[in-house]
């Protein structure tokens, strides 16, 4: 049966990298129909709304969604409700894509591009499981208010219910069961009650997964350990904001944030797939963006939402091949390699396929 994929290019480098990923998807000759829609800043410009109703309806009926990135300085002064990022958060929350999987894998060809010493990162393969529809990015109340003394005060609320923690916890335990059977839950339970509860729920769940070894780490230490000795981790599970920050740090261990794909899934495995990076306004429109994170996100989409594991394997093998050929965008460039543009990298993956 024909599957429907909704493509949301977004802003900045979003359209550039998504073009390459769609080209790669098209090369596979699968029974897939592709539609596209506006989200983020481009949607604000066209409709005044970062998540137009039409986009949300298309997203609801698609089998899977591929998103580039949203945001940029053009919209930074907008009120929060009409910021591009609100469109992305709205999609995640409306579709209940609470489980965000961010695998950080070092391709051996990129050992020199990693910011860490080769012996510290060689063979690195960790998975960050980030809660994506709760926590401080969504908690109420939030805003900026003026106090009686005339001073303004900004406030957000960091809140998680037990059921929100339990459902992301289960996803992480199950992921750990399929991998190295080690799960590290990252919190700030020395300061924040919400993460005291987080830790307690993880401990309760651990009883149901006796084959998984559960450990706990405070987020500040976790940030340090990620750059000190990242291979100590197998699966990391954490809340929305900590996961956002830690996954950008983990990205650099793999050479570049341009290498980090992600899958955001609901309880039934329906998903949105996107690179972990943003719209990179500093390099947008220059053909410099690395499209591999988006291309690898397509592989995740084929594997998790479209039941096309063999095609996913083919894409990952093709990425290995272009790296073997020494082709590099600027962010992963090293001596002796060939610098290529966004489009040339996409073409090389297509040729490798
Ligand atoms: N999922 C999304 O749509 C996300 C959107 N954003 C938004 O993106 C805008 C820019 O945010 P930044 O903090 O600058 O983060 P960013 O991830 O866009 O860029 C950070 C740095 O990484 C580089 N970079 C990112 N992706 C790259 C790629 N594929 N190839 C090569 N280099 C790459 C950029 O050039 C920049 O120097 C903001 O409006 C932010 O809100 C940020 C993160 C995620
Ligand atoms: C709008 C942001 C929360 C997006 C982001 O930084 C991310 O998902 O990594
Ligand atoms: Mg982020």
Automatic annotation (TrEMBL):
It comes from the Bacteria. This is 3-isopropylmalate dehydrogenase. GO terms for molecular function: 3-isopropylmalate dehydrogenase activity; magnesium ion binding; NAD binding. It catalyses: (2R,3S)-3-isopropylmalate + NAD(+) = 4-methyl-2-oxopentanoate + CO2 + NADH. Keywords: Amino-acid biosynthesis, Branched-chain amino acid biosynthesis, Cytoplasm, Leucine biosynthesis, Magnesium, Manganese, Metal-binding, NAD, Oxidoreductase. GO terms for cellular component: cytosol. NAD(+) binds at residues 72-85, 278-290. Homodimer. One of its GO terms (biological process) is L-leucine biosynthetic process. InterPro entries: IsoCit/isopropylmalate_DH_CS, IsoPropMal-DH-like_dom, Isopropylmalate_DH. It is an enzyme of class 1 (oxidoreductase). The keyword Glycoprotein does not apply. Residues 4-349 form the Isopropylmalate dehydrogenase-like domain. The record marks 137, 188 as: Important for catalysis. Its main location: cytoplasm. Its cofactor is Mg(2+); Mn(2+). Catalyzes the oxidation of 3-carboxy-2-hydroxy-4-methylpentanoate (3-isopropylmalate) to 3-carboxy-4-methyl-2-oxopentanoate. The product decarboxylates to 4-methyl-2 oxopentanoate. Belongs to the isocitrate and isopropylmalate dehydrogenases family. LeuB type 1 subfamily. Pathway: Amino-acid biosynthesis; L-leucine biosynthesis; L-leucine from 3-methyl-2-oxobutanoate: step 3/4. Its EC number is 1.1.1.85. Substrate binds at residues 92, 102, 130, 220. Binds 1 Mg(2+) or Mn(2+) ion per subunit. It is found in: Cytoplasm. Mg(2+) binds at residues 220, 244, 248.
């Amino acid at each position: 049966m024909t599957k429907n994929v909704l493509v949301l290019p977004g802003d900045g480098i979003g359209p550039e990298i998504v073009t390459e990923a769609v080209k790669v998807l098209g090369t596979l000759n699968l029974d897939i129909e592709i539609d596209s829609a506006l989200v983020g800043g481009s949607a604000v410009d066209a409709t005044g709304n970062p998540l137009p109703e039409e986009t949300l309806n298309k997203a609801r009926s698609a089998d899977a969604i591929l998103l580039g990135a949203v945001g940029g300085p053009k919209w930074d002064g907008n009120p929060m409700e009409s910021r591009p990022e609100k469109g992305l958060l709205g999609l995640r929350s409306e579709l209940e894509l609470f489980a965000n999987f961010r695998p950080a894998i070092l391709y051996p060809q990129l050992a020199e591009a990693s910011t860490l010493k080769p012996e510290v990162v060689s063979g690195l393969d960790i998975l960050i499981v980030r809660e994506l529809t709760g926590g401080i990015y969504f908690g109420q109340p939030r805003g900026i208010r003026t106090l009686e003394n005339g001073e303004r005060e900004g406030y957000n609320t960091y809140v998680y219910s037990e059921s929100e923690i339990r459902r992301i916890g289960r996803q992480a335990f199950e992921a750990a069961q399929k991998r190295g059977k080690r799960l590290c839950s990252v919190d700030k339970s020395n300061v924040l009650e919400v993460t005291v509860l987080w830790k307690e729920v993880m401990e309760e769940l651990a009883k149901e997964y006796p084959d998984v070894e559960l450990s706990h780490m405070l987020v500040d230490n976790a940030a340090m350990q990620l750059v000190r000795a990242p291979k100590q981790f197998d699966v990391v599970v954490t809340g929305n904001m900590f996961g956002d920050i830690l996954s950008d740090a983990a990205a650099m261990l793999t050479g570049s944030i341009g290498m980090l794909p992600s899958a955001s899934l609901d309880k039934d495995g329906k998903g949105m797939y996107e690179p972990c990076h943003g719209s990179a306004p500093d390099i947008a429109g220059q053909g410099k963006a690395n499209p591999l994170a988006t291309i690898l996100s397509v592989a995740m989409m084929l594997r998790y939402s479209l039941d096309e594991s063999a095609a996913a394997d083919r894409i990952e093998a093709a990425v290995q091949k272009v790296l073997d050929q020494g082709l590099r965008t600027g962010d992963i460039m090293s001596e002796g390699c060939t610098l290529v543009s966004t489009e040339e990298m996409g073409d090389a993956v297509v040729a490798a396929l």
